[in-house]
């Protein structure tokens, strides 16, 4: 027996014993067993990928701080934490007292003296391991958002803070005086988009070069992949990646076979979910007077997080998270194209798509600030239905914000509608930017005559005022509806968006199926068109999402069954004309209809 063989056998025994020991959960200690002044240590990555030790002193216990669990308060020290404070990205860092696991560093307070941290007990985190595996699609346990109603969509009555408000809504469960210590990183976002993210996410770091890749592993086998995620190691939750990237980073608390517990607090409070899980590497801790943070890079996707609850997140190596392909093409001084993948976690999709699109537009238009024009088209793929195409034109210094707000709100309608569970298959955006707004205000209409017969064609001259320009004129030919009654006949002429809002008030559509909702959305016109129709008194109905403007009494009685909405006004003779530039405004022309006119 040679010495080399003996040492090889010993090394094998040691490795086997280490693997056996690591398979057993680390003994834990309950908050009730802790006393002020007790000392221990924690593990986190300060640079690179190897966890390093920092020192911990117990200050006390907060009973029922956020749940029915008692949270631990401790002072951290070592590696400069006395000066930097708790760094964002330390969320999940395991803390040990007397060799027993207390829990995970989870939150801190801004502007504190020293590194004062809140620790989530490991007993609460381990409950996540008892939950069943989540399927590939978001489940009904996920919190539902509120779908905007059709009137809001058609009128586009959206606050320009909608994107910011949406971020705060999803992060609101974690927003109080104690801030969660997860760190957000982005790549490819320009200053304006970064300022928005800084406001809602805290100081945002930059993802280092190298991007993110994915690796397919077998979730049912242990092939050593869990060795890449260790207690105290860095872990990432990629949400957008490709030409632009966005990810949250934190720390692994405990590894249990193919499962990991991490972060120690919710990221979005989604409950059950599937979001990508990736390795991460720390460049350094960046000291900050308000809140220091880890500057990190995101590595390969090796699994998915499938639980996001108040005590932390659970991930599984080898589990696949669904993704949504997204492309953006911006025509301006040049043509710029972007391709990304977005985490397909149902209720987050609108927020992530709109945020990614906002980032690409800010990147593409970095040399085009202030007032500008924007023509926007988004093609949204919907599983089981034809694509929905959204078209609109914008102008002014908030053109990009307006476009992103529209995109976010329409996507929220699709995802949160009450008629059908929806899964998107892709989002493709094409936009053209102009150095100045192109919107023309519709200010007046002059018909060639006012006394008309049913079926007559009348030329109407429209006055259109260009942005900071002169009045331009355009003539359209309006056809008087053949069914028009004698007397006053108001005819409205305006841009497609404004006229859709008027039609909504007249028709009062109430779709009863999701396909009817899509058909209605597809019928909406953009500002780069002119629309005209007459408004007249009529006895009609809106039935199951279909408008029947004029019906004889015998037929109306059939629909008087509670499923229909009676209409007192109807629009007749709708006409549409394309425009080479966007228009805003509505004008009214009152015709005098006479049937016996020669």
List the helices and strands and how they pair.
Layout (H helix, E strand, L loop, with lengths): L2 H21 L15 E6 L7 E11 L8 E7 L3 H4 L9 E4 L2 E9 L6 E7 H5 L23 H6 L6 H10 L7 E2 L2 E5 L3 H11 L3 E2 L6 E2 L19 E9 L2 E12 L2 E4 L8 E16 L6 E17 L2 E6 L5 E9 L3 E9 L5 H16 L7 E11 L2 E12 L2 H18 L7 E11 L5 E8 L3 E2 L4 E9 L5 E9 L7 E9 H12 L6 H10 L5 E15 L2 E3 L4 H7 L4 E15 L4 E2 L1 E8 L5
Parallel strand pairs: 8-9, 10-15, 17-21, 22-30, 23-31
Antiparallel strand pairs: 1-2, 1-4, 2-3, 3-6, 4-5, 5-6, 5-7, 8-12, 11-12, 11-14, 11-18, 12-13, 13-16, 14-15, 15-16, 17-18, 19-20, 19-21, 22-24, 24-25, 26-27, 26-31, 27-28, 27-29
Helix pairs in contact: 5-6, 6-7, 7-8
Radius of gyration: 30 Å
Strand content: 35-45%
User: Strand count, sense and closure of the main sheet?
Assistant: 6 strands, antiparallel, barrel
Give the helix tally. Answer: 11
Indicate the structural class. Answer: alpha+beta
Taking strands numbered 1, 2, ... along the chain, how are they ordered across the largest sheet?
Answer: 1-2-3-6-5-4
* β-strand number: 31
Low-confidence spans: pLDDT under 50, at least 5 residues?
1-23, 138-143, 208-227, 541-547, 551-564
* Measured distance between first and last alpha carbons: 122 Å
Categorize the overall geometry: elongated
Give average pLDDT, whole number: 82
Helix content: 10-25%
């Amino acid at each position: 027996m040679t010495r080399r063989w003996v040492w090889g056998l010993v090394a094998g025994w040691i490795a086997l014993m280490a693997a056996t020991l690591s398979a057993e959960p680390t003994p834990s200690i309950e908050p009730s067993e802790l006393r002020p002044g007790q000392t221990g240590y924690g593990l986190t990555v300060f640079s690179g990928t190897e966890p390093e030790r920092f020192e911990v002193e117990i200050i006390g216990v907060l009973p029922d701080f956020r749940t029915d669990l008692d949270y631990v308060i401790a002072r951290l020290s070592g590696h400069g934490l006395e000066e930097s404070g708790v760094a964002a990205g330390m969320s999940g860092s395991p803390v040990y007292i007397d060799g027993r696991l207390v829990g995970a560093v989870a939150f801190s307070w801004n502007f504190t003296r020293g590194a004062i941290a809140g620790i989530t007990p490991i007993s609460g985190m381990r409950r996540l391991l008892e939950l069943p595996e989540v399927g590939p699609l978001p489940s009904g346990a996920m919190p539902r958002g509120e779908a905007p109603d059709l009137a809001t969509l058609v009128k586009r009555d959206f606050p320009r803070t909608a994107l910011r408000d949406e971020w705060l809504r999803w992060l609101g469960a974690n927003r109080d005086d104690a801030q969660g210590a997860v760190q957000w990183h982005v790549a490819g976002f320009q200053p304006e988009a970064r300022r928005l993210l800084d406001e809602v996410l805290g100081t945002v770091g930059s993802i280092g070069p190298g991007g993110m890749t994915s690796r397919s592993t077998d979730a049912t086998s242990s092939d050593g992949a869990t060795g890449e995620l260790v207690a105290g190691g860095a872990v990432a939750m990629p949400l957008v990646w490709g030409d632009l990237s966005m990810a949250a980073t934190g720390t692994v608390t405990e590894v249990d076979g193919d499962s990991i517990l991490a972060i120690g607090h919710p990221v979005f409070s989604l409950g059950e979910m599937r979001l990508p899980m990736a390795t991460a590497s720390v460049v350094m801790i960046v000291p900050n007077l308000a809140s220091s943070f880890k500057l990190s890079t995101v590595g390969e996707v090796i699994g998915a997080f499938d639980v996001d609850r108040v005590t932390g997140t659970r991930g599984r190596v080898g589990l696949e998270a669904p993704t949504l392909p997204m492309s953006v093409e911006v025509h301006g001084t040049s043509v710029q194209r972007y391709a990304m993948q977005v985490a397909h976690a149902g209720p987050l999709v609108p927020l992530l798509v709109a945020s990614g699109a906002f980032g690409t537009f800010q990147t593409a238009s970095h040399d085009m600030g202030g007032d500008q024009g924007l023509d926007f088209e988004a093609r949204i793929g919907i599983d089981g239905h034809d694509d929905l195409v959204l078209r609109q034109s914008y102008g002014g210094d908030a053109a990009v914000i307006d476009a992103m707000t529209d995109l976010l709100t329409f996507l929220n309608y699709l995802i949160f509608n009450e008629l059908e569970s929806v899964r998107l298959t892709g989002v493709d955006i094409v936009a053209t930017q102009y150095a100045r707004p192109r919107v023309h205000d519709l200010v007046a209409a002059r018909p060639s005559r006012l006394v008309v017969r049913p079926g007559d064609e009348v030329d109407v001259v429209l006055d259109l005022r260009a942005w900071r320009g002169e009045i331009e004129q355009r003539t359209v030919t309006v056809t008087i509806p053949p069914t028009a009654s004698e007397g006053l006949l108001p005819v409205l002429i305006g841009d497609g968006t404004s006229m859709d809002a008027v039609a909504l008030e007249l028709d009062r559509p109430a779709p009863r199926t999701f396909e009817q909702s899509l058909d209605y959305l597809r019928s909406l016109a953009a500002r780069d068109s002119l629309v005209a129709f007459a408004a007249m008194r009529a006895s009609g109905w809106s039935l199951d999402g279909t408008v029947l403007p004029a019906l004889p009494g015998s037929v109306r009685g059939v629909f008087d069954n509670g499923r229909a909405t009676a209409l007192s006004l109807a629009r007749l003779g709708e006409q549409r004309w394309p425009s080479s530039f966007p228009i805003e405004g509505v004008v009214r022309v009152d015709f005098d209809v006479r049937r016996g006119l020669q």
